[in-house]
């Protein structure tokens, strides 16, 4: 075993953080935690993980669940395709693999939602297969450690690093090896001001030796993301508001939201709302004042949502752009999985209507 690998493993044994999925490791927990941890901090994931395994303690219980309940438990964690794929994958695991995840990374990649990263993580951490995991933390650590100057937005950098790590993971316990690097990236080799003085890789680190820790890894700038104004209508009829379930093939598919959509150029926001309500629900409404304005960012764009209070005037609702429409009271709304922007809107609606004595 290389000296740096031994130092890294010793460091991990001493300093790894407590995480509930590390307590009594089992493939289902490893899988679930790795999916939840994508794009998300450990501290954010822990309560979601605990709630999830309490409700769905096994792959079988998850497979048998209703998708709406899965999405509700995922609410607020973002990147909802992860939850939909996890649910789909649980069904495949139960129906095609007898409830047991395959151990091999290539076999795992046949299951929905298992990309190269999740397959490598589950195969190595849960089953001890020597497959290096390369996420953002690992890229950062090794671009510094080996002085790699390629742009880490280029996909081949990942593949090359994975190949370079293979001989090292084959000489080490794969689960601890992968987790140790990820942990080192999260705790020590931080994006800004890495704690090199307490790093087990410091004796051999190229970036430290050459005073280049601030320059590595090289990451090209992202193009600025577009920003869209969006109008939504909280339509009231007989003490209830109208929500629609987004189509499965859409972004945020399966989640519920208030009708509305993107403003077109030169279009007044109230006209946007009238157009969207008409084309999405077939209803005619009276548009009153806005309840609130909410900013929200996605990976590739940002939105500013203006939520208007509306009163139903005429028409029968038809799900013209959603899978389903429902009239619900504000209390009933709690039972539905909503995207973050809709949660913020519903909080503003509740506060306003309470102040008016309507809720
Ligand atoms: S010595 Fe510093 S730059 Fe090098 S791997 Fe460790 S923390 Fe990162």
Explain how this protein is built.
With 359 residues, the chain is of the alpha+beta class. It has two domains: 3-209, Orthogonal Bundle (Endonuclease III, domain 1); 227-355, Alpha-Beta Complex (Nucleoside Triphosphate Pyrophosphohydrolase), CATH 3.90.79. The protein is 46% helix and 15% strand. It contains 16 helices and seven strands. The chain has helices at residues 3-15, 20-23, 27-37, 42-55, 59-64, 67-74, 81-97, 105-108, 116-127, 136-145, 155-170, 174-187, 206-209, 269-281, 330-333, 340-355; strands at 227-237, 240-245, 256-257, 260-262, 284-297, 302-314, 324-328. Strands 1, 2, 3, 4, 5, 6 and 7 form a seven-stranded mixed beta sheet that branches. Strand 1 and strand 2 (240-245) form a beta hairpin. Helix 3 (27-37) crosses helix 4 (42-55). It starts with a helix and ends with a helix. The model has no long low-confidence stretch (mean pLDDT 95). GO terms for molecular function: 4 iron, 4 sulfur cluster binding; 8-oxo-7,8-dihydroguanine DNA N-glycosylase activity; adenine/guanine mispair binding; metal ion binding; oxidized purine DNA binding; purine-specific mismatch base pair DNA N-glycosylase activity. Residues 226-351 form the Nudix hydrolase domain. One of its GO terms (biological process) is mismatch repair. Its cofactor is [4Fe-4S] cluster.
